[in-house]
Amino acid sequence: MTTTNAATATVPEATRPAHRSPQVLRWLGAYTASTLGDSVYYLALSWSAVSGGSPAQAGLVMAVAAVPRALLMLGGGVIADRLGPRRVVIASDAVRCLVVLGLAATLFLASPGLWALAAVALVFGVVDALFLPAVGALPPRIAERDQLARVQGMRGLAYRLGAVLGAPLGGLAVALGGPATAFGIAGILFALSLPLLGALKLRPLPQEDETRDGTALRDLADGLRYLRGHQTLGPLMIVVLLADLGFTGPLNIGLAILSEQRGWGASGIGWVLAGFGTGAAGASLLLTVKGHVPRAGLVMGWTMAVGAVSIGALAYLPLLPLAALAAVSIGLLAGLSGALCNALVQTECDPAYLGRVSAVSSLGSLGLAPLSFPVTGAAIGLWGPGPVFVASAAVCALSGVYALAVPALRRAELPK
After folding, report:
1. 132 compared with 206, residue with greater pLDDT
2. DSSP characters for 258-289?
């Protein structure tokens, strides 16, 4: 009788949609708090760097984090798979909390100069290399396989919420109490994620019971072999890399130059980015509510190919309202294709390798794609924004065409 009751009690939890699961909601709350903390931290860091040094010095401080993040990302995936993603995420947010609160206290008491900001940025780069693969490996441990697409939609909404609310919150904190107050708020937000993460009850995975006798380097090589031999994940990583290389430059450096040439000013950049964020949030909301997209691989390929048209058109739209509408289209299509990519990674990958696979996926957008910034800026200086945006759109379209041309990707499905 007791066994029957226990089994019956577990059925609602197992079949519960992700948006009603206490475990998913705890993870989502922790992720939202951490994302908000990131947004407040980066605004405070950029303000402090600009206020304390030359533009070149400020740019150097902001770029410090990219180096360890790119160099250590693959190693972070190995650590997430060896130690378990929850431990790594908790440790990452704990370190960020302590470091940022320490910086806030230092700024209250003294003016340490740019070296302190650079040191904190360096620590954040190292922590990001651990945090990003680990946070990507958590969803299969808190949700059923058929809910992972919905979880990715919820994660996208949380990310957009953090980006939209974090910057104004950081700006208000700087205006009222200076950078020290903003860093203190960021530290508190990181601290809020810790009890939520600690309360997570992870679903047991058979692979976690296996002992690892090999070295970390052997684990990394094993993960790359697994990825190379997987008929879906291997090509999917190529799609992600091409899309990131085509998308990241124009929507960062290119948009700023375009806005300046069109006379839209800083507010124009804000409106275009707001349009992009609105479209991306709409895509995440669609996936959150629907939870399943039929023929996901086919939809992913087509949304990449069609979204590339909007990227190319953005450089030829003279009016700001039209550019903002094009940005909504880019955000909706790119947001949907990106969410589907992440959902397919979650559902196709063996959980034992998910940290390493997430690291490879993140390396493209956060490690390699930023290298296109100086190339994009130089190319626009030589040929103008139009040809460069079209070339970037062609790269994005190529990623979609490649996805449609690979049978395993074209037929990829999300579980119902």
Report:
1. 132
2. HHHHHT-HHHHHHHHHHHHHHHHHHHHHHHHH
DSSP code of residue 18: G
- Residues of the chain with pLDDT > 70: what percent? 89
Predicted pLDDT at 203:
76
Longest Cα–Cα distance in the chain: 78
Q: Encoding tokens for residue 399?
A: 């990623």
Number of Cβ within a 10 Å radius of residue 348: 18
Closest CA to 79 of 132, 118, 124, 38: 132
Torsion, CA 319, CA 286, CA 161, CA 77, rounded to 10:
-110
Burial of 287 (0-12, 13-18, 19+ CB in 10 A): buried
Kindly report the three-state secondary structure assignment for every residue of 301-370.
Answer: HHHHHHHHHHHHHHCCCCCHHHHHHHHHHHHHHHHHHHHHHHHHHHHHCCHHHHHHHHHHHHHHHHHHHH
Mean pLDDT (whole number) for 206-235:
79
- The sign of the CA dihedral 185, 191, 192, 197 is positive
Q: In angstroms, rounded to a whole number, what is the distance separating the alpha carbons of residues 244 and 135?
A: 20
Q: What is the pLDDT of residue 329?
A: 93
